[in-house]
């Protein structure tokens, strides 16, 4: 199975900050990488697919990059609504796997 | 807006069975792959199973193969997960999710249903 490793696990940050979250795959997944946002008690929400494509309705402050085994999610200017947990997911094959999550907390 | 509503969760003893259901609406159900994804505090998100739009192909995570069965009834706009030989490790919130074309990210999710396996 393809393992997905996110870093950091927790990030203390403030409104207005530029935030970068990293996701590493254990093998080449080309661009078959998605990012989700999850708030407590809610289902995950798809933000980005195919590494860099913004899902409809997602604010443009979110962006994704990378290919192969290294990927990043960037929030250009953190807003109050963005404090949440973020997950990467590979869909290179039918055995989908998720990263362990990165929680954004208020500094 | 796509709607997915799970039901059927609850308390069950190890070795027991449970059947989850997911009622879909506001989209053409038989055009989409569907999946079950579960979440535990300790292990985060874990994909469980996927089924093709016509039910002809199913895929499972290794830990549930031979114990869980995913199925669908396109006439009823419903997705199911039959869970047998349940273990403590199966305790989780189970989400129904829509997969555009398999394999593809999950663009819509239900609210989740809690399954607790306890002895």
The residue ranges of chain A in which pLDDT falls below 50 over 5 or more consecutive positions are none
Give the oligomeric state of the chains in this entry, treating copies of one chain as homo and distinct chains as hetero. Answer: heterodimer
- Low-confidence parts of chain B, pLDDT < 50 over ≥5 residues? none
Helix-strand pattern of chain B:
EEEEEEEEEEE
Strand portion of chain A, in percent? over 45%
Number of strands of chain B: 11
Tally the helices of chain A: what do you get?
0
Overall mean pLDDT of chain B: 96
Distance between the termini of chain B: 40 Å
Relative helix content of chain B: under 10%
* N-C termini distance of chain A: 36 Å
Break the fold down into its secondary structure elements and pairings.
The complex is a heterodimer of chains A (107) and B (119).
Chain A: E1 4-7, E2 10-13, E3 19-25, E4 33-38, E5 45-49, E6 53-54, E7 62-67, E8 70-75, E9 85-90, E10 97-98, E11 102-106
Parallel strand pairs in A: 2-11
Antiparallel strand pairs in A: 1-3, 3-8, 4-5, 4-9, 5-6, 7-8, 9-10, 9-11
Chain B: E1 3-7, E2 10-12, E3 18-25, E4 33-40, E5 44-51, E6 58-60, E7 68-73, E8 78-83, E9 92-99, E10 106-109, E11 113-117
Parallel strand pairs in B: 2-11
Antiparallel strand pairs in B: 1-3, 3-8, 4-5, 4-9, 5-6, 7-8, 9-10, 9-11
